[in-house]
Amino acid sequence: MPAKSNQNHLLIIEDEKGRKEYTLEEPVYSIGRDPDVDIRLFSQFVSRRHATLVRREREDGSLYYRIVDGNLKGKASANGLVINGRKLQAHDLEDEDEVVFGPQVSAKYYILKRDSVPTGPPDEFDITLISPNMMGGDPDDWTP
User: Fold this and answer.
1) Whole-prediction pTM value?
2) Where does the record place the FHA domain (predicted)?
């Protein structure tokens, strides 16, 4: 039986409405400007169903996402995908890949590795104390 993936997959979108982060956990995500997609992009230069993310599994049991231009029925987007500077129909995403959907609309993909997952309650004595002297700068500049 393959080892359970010990990773989080993160997609950070930047578009006309700013920056938004998505933790990827589902097997499939639709991406575009249509209000019914899973990951909505805000730009007139993006297709309603611009791209699709599909979760895949490697032989070692680790998971990754493949991005495909358009929808899963084969209908491509109007402007396509530019991934790491190359126009591609599909791509197996790797850590820090950049996907451009259109002018000023892009995404950055991250694989966040976790060393361990806590299995019990937190240790009540495992705390970090921070003295105000350790913060540096003017105390009036600190935000709560």
Assistant:
1) 0.74
2) 29-88
